[in-house]
Amino acid sequence: MNQTQITHGLRCGTALSALVLATALSVSPAFAQDTTTTAEPQTTVAPLEAVQDQAAETGNEVVVTGTLIRNPNLTSSSPVNVIGQEELTLRQSNVAEEVLRSLPGVVPSIGSSVNNGNGGSSFVDLRGLGPQRNLVLLNGSRLVPADFNGQVNLNVIPLALLERVDVLTGGATTTYGADAVSGVVNFITRKDFSGVELNASEQITERGDGNVFRADLTMGANLEDGRGNVTVSLGYQKAKPVYQGDRDISIFQVDSVSGDQAGSGTTVPIRMNLGNGLGTRQLDPATGALVPTYAFFNFNPYNVFQTPFERYSLFVNGRYELADGIEAYSEGLFSKTKVSTVIAPSGTFGLTFAIPFSNPYLPTAIRNEALAQRAAQCAGTGVNCAPVTATDTFSAALSRRFVEGGSRISEYTTQLFQGRVGVRGDLSEHLSFDVSGSYGESENTSRSTGQGLASRVQAALLASNTTSCFNGDPACVPLNLFGAAGSITPAQFAYLNIPTTSATKTSLGAARAVLSGDFGLVSPGATDAVGFAVGAEYRRYTAESTSDLSSQTPDEVLGAGAANPDSRGEYNVKEAFAELIAPLIQNRPFFHNLTLELGARYSDYSTAGTNWTWKAGGNWEPTDWLKVRGNYQKAARAPNISELFSPQITGLDNFASDPCQGSAPTTNAQLRAICIAQGAPASSIGNIEAEPSAQPNNRSGGNLNLGVEKATTWTAGLVINPDFVPGLTISADYYNIKVDDAISQPSFGDALNACFLEANNPGLSATNPACTAIRRNPATGGLFGTAAAFVPLPYSNSGRIRTDGVDLTVNYRRDIGFAKLDLNFSGNWTNSSRFQATPASVERECVGYYSNSCGSPGAGINFRGSIQPKWSFNQRTTLGFGGIDLSLLWRYVDKMDYEPLAVQELLGDNNADTDPPAEQFRHIKAAHYFDLATRFAATDNFDLTVTVTNLFDRDPPLVGNTIGSTSFNSGNTYPSTYDALGRRFAFGAKLKF
After folding, report:
1. In sequence order, which residues have a C-beta less than 8 Å from that of residue 431 and are 6 or more positions away?
2. Domains in the chain and their CATH numbers?
3. What is the DSSP secondary-structure string of 482-545?
4. 210, 412, 898, 935: which could join 205 in a potential S-S bond, CB 3.0 to 4.6 Å?
5. Which of 516, 401, 385, 513 is nearest to 451 (CA)?
6. CB atoms within 10 A of CB 100
7. What are phi and psi of 245, to 5 degrees?
8. What burial class does residue 287 get, using C-beta atoms within 10 Å of its C-beta: 0-12 exposed, 13-18 middle, 19+ buried?
9. How far is CA 493 from CA 53, 361, 397, 448, 485, in A?
């Protein structure tokens, strides 16, 4: 099916949904009332088996995530945990990412708690292997990605219409195709909804900020005695920011090394490096001279712990029985979201500018020092010996913050639509089919203000009076960078502050046909027939980004982190697959059920060639209350568009030290030679500094030679549902995931070690390619201040990832007389999570540890994930008293320690870390959070829910601001892992009729 056909199918599906809706509202207006609104406790996070058992009591079929075989009597051998609608109600979460982030076994990804690094989308990261290695589905179908990395934006998921969320852990590539190395999250909407449901909620913190309002309206109607159904859900949500300056723990930035107040080296008054060997110094307002000591700029108060967010959403699905056993169906999703990031004022950030000796704002002492340097050059080399004229200039690296311009604000507006149409039905008693096509597009546009343009700063510095610039542009206003805060006038900043825009567009067109059923063949020892599914699938991905000229120019947009050149990429994949579930023995002594599961998928990628994946597993139930299960899979992931096609760009990394900094090169001739070979001027040796905010430059881009990464995953576990303890379900599963030929990039520390560690570079040769690939600022010798300075971090298939652990869930439901009791426990113990980016890189064990190099392994520099505890769990206790539920959720995050390997960085095993954190920041105690919720069924049609999150107002742990990536270490803590907002209250109401 080509794109035109898919788009035509979408239009037909939308028309079908509209027709069904119109018919429902005009011909069959009688809505069925849901009378089961009494607040009885229900299983909220459970293994799929528990949900199936509950559904069987009411005669409902539960579609199994993890297999394409549609037979309610057969279950997959892969473990699947379910988040029920009741859990979503009690938590009163507003976006899907907030729900998934706190689940054991999930490592926080980009979401509402990420400010600097949030591009307007939210993602999920199963097992900490990176969001590009798990798959997100809506009703079993892929959603259009949000970006070049192929990741799905969780902000678009329609929470109001969700029935449940299935989380399948372990590989699922054979069933769903590439990207499902670490698992699948399948959002399943309610089917055949009939009636009208209105939900509204209001949330606010105890400090009176962070207000979140959400409202959803869902309408549904049945057609012709159940022959069809149409459901529409409309939603709106708006969240306001929580500023770091409004929390005691984050009013000031704290240096992780010294424990003192710190901040950025781009500050007020200005700091300058004249390139005369004296290093970067700050202006002393009293004398107008440059002095070696300086005050940091505290950027924390400007940043936020909760990003502003607004969403409009529409979801519609419909089905209609065309003939007996043949049904047409369609669904459509539209979402418009706006996420705003708010960070500290922009500045010149160490870029080098030309300054006229005649600049009217230049302090006399600095002018005289620059003149003396010019005279010394004349005496020493014979250059710059002509008399100084009004237009003559000198060069200096400038670090001045534009506090007068206010915060840098980026607004990311994402519009997504996706439609799916299909026909399914029965060909015979033993054979059914499902043919569908889908098409979706996502466009993320960003508009940023407050940065300023380097070219305009340069133009405004080239002036000899306060009213006109050398370029003759009447709009140019000479700029005073040399005064105290307030010296930059509104007119001066207005000339600098030109908004920048960019856009990223992605699309996904897919077609799939599945034939499933059974062979009519029954094993001699079984009663159920062998089930199978065979099919084919085609997917085509495209992504392109465009931006204005300023955004494409390196070093032009001040404080932007990296240039954003136009780029485009696409690929397609053709696949064929087959699955089989064969009951071998049933209802025999010690063999209540013995089932074999097999599957295989052949994939042909237009970029990475062909690949096979397969799985083998099974279930053994010696009794009707005990199941032993296991699954072995060969999974795969093809390189995404970003990894293949992204242009080479210079961006920001996170690392606290530089081997060339300070006095070290002055006493080590080999080190000095390396620094100079990398582009540091000889005059800078002894005065090179690390980037004050621990954000040096890296350089990365796509690699068209990348191949498929290959994974081996296996799980083994058991499910206990004993008859002698009614209401009890226990599941425990061990998982083991190994990824070879992993598409990865070395960490910043790895790249430095390849050059500066003698074990990797014998004799510390300055001509070693690992050394000469690193480039330094030609003015200051640093690894920052210009796009020409960077540490290269190329993509390759050289990585290795290893992780294993145990998932445990326990559910118990019982009527205890005066109340109904529901106990739920969901926990994860991660034994290990090791990542080696290249054979020459350090193999890191990051479970239970944090450092600049420890985060989600294998995620790459463009997404270095949050920290991963050894042990975490959620435990919910719910008591139901007639129409009232009282529920307490206990969330636990295990203790963490500073990575032991980090103290051996750069200088070898027998030397200490050059910048170890202060002792009080080397350990994080275990965190316990408690959330209390009460749900009250006022009438059969009206519910009220009140939730207090972080009941005891626990503060997050402090580790300072320079350990970890900027996205996940912010405000002196890890706000995606630990609660930085404090106690907050949510009030929700649901009206049904």
Report:
1. 515, 516, 517
2. 3-245+305-344+410-448+503-638+707-747+793-992 (2.40.170.20)
3. SSSTT-S-HHHHHHH---EEEEEEEEEEEEEEEEEEEEEEE-TB-SSEEEEEEEEEEEEEEEEE
4. 210
5. 401
6. 25
7. -70, -10
8. exposed
9. 66, 15, 20, 15, 13
Residue 862, C-beta contacts closer than 8 angstroms, at least 6 positions apart: 149, 642, 700
3-state secondary structure string, 300-335? HHHCEEECCEEEEEEEEEEEEEEECCEEEEEEEEEE
Q: How far apart are CA 723 and CA 163, in angstroms?
A: 28
DSSP letter at 152 equals -
pTM: 0.89
The one-character DSSP state at 918 is: P
For 664, the enclosing helix (H) or strand (E) is helix 664-667
DSSP character string of 354-421: EEETT-TTS-HHHHHHHHHHHHHHHHHHS-S-SPP-TT-EEEEEEEBB-GGG--EEEEEEEEEEEEEE
Tell me the two tokens of residue 286.
Answer: 């009293």
What is the 8-class DSSP label of residue 144?
P
Provide the residue count of the chain: 993
Q: How many helices (H) and strands (E) does the chain have?
A: 14, 44
Count of CB atoms situated within 10 Å of the CB of 731: 25
Divide the 993 residues of the chain into consecutive groups of 10 and give the mean pLDDT of each group.
Answer: 39 37 31 33 54 47 67 68 89 90 91 93 92 92 94 92 87 82 92 93 97 96 91 96 96 91 92 91 93 90 96 96 95 97 95 96 96 91 88 95 96 97 94 96 97 97 97 97 96 97 97 93 92 96 96 91 90 96 94 94 94 94 94 93 92 86 92 96 91 86 93 94 92 95 88 90 94 94 91 93 95 93 96 89 88 63 70 96 94 94 49 68 96 94 96 96 88 96 97 93
Type of residue at 340: S
**961 within 8 A of 970, measured Cβ to Cβ:** yes
Residue with tokens 């105290």: 484
For residue 389, the tally of other CB atoms under 10 A from its CB is 11
Local structure of 231: helix, strand or coil: strand
User: Which two three-digit tokens encode residue 545?
Assistant: 């980004």
Which helix H or strand E contains 716, and what residues bound it? strand 709-720
- Residue bearing tokens 């599906």: 13
**Alpha carbons 233 and 475: distance in angstroms, whole number:** 50
* Number of alpha carbons in the 13 Å side-chain half-sphere of residue 771: 26
Q: Is the peptide bond before 158 cis (omega within 30 degrees of 0)?
A: no
Task: For the chain, give percent helix, strand, coil, nearest 5.
Answer: 15, 45, 40
Tokens found for residue 193: 């909804």
Which residue has tokens 């800078």? 684
**Amino acid identity, position 507:** S
Please report how many Cα atoms fall inside a 13 Å half-sphere around the Cα of residue 126, on the Cβ side: 26
